[in-house]
Write a sequence for this structure.
């Protein structure tokens, strides 16, 4: 009898809270930023407490759908506090971002990793880095789908 309940709980927990966010540290971020192949990477830095970040998510969703099936990878890097992961971030992802590849950054002092993303970045969000090979485009502002598409097109080999 207990096994049946355990199975039910495991099934329910997996299906209800299946969307999670991998945790990246500074070396993980560095590895991702060094990817150089035929893919265009779009790395959006955001947080659940950032109103402009949340407002631009539908724009990124539309752009991501537009590029689906093409060599374009969208990654959404949450800068939410680790202490709020279970309470805020994971429920937000489950409810609003099931379509997205979300990671949570736990890389220590932002002054140590922000220059890796872009030396001009003040640390404000939303911010997005686009790259393919050695070509990079960085935007420290909210974006709309047409602008995202234009930048992606400019990076396609």
């Amino acid at each position: 009898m207990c096994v049946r309940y355990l199975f039910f709980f495991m099934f329910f927990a997996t299906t209800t809270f299946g969307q999670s966010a991998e945790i990246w540290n500074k070396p993980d971020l560095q590895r991702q930023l060094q990817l150089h192949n035929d893919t265009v990477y779009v790395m959006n830095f955001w947080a659940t407490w950032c109103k402009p970040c949340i407002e631009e998510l539908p724009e990124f969703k539309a752009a991501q759908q537009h590029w689906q099936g093409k060599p374009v990878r969208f990654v959404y890097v949450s800068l939410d506090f680790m202490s709020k992961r279970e309470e805020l971030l994971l429920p937000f992802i489950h409810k609003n971002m099931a379509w997205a590849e979300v990671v949570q950054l736990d890389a220590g002092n932002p002054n140590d990793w922000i220059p890796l993303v872009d030396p001009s970045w003040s640390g404000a969000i939303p911010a997005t880095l686009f790259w393919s090979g050695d070509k990079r485009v960085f935007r420290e502002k909210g974006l709309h789908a047409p602008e995202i598409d234009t930048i992606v097109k400019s990076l396609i080999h």
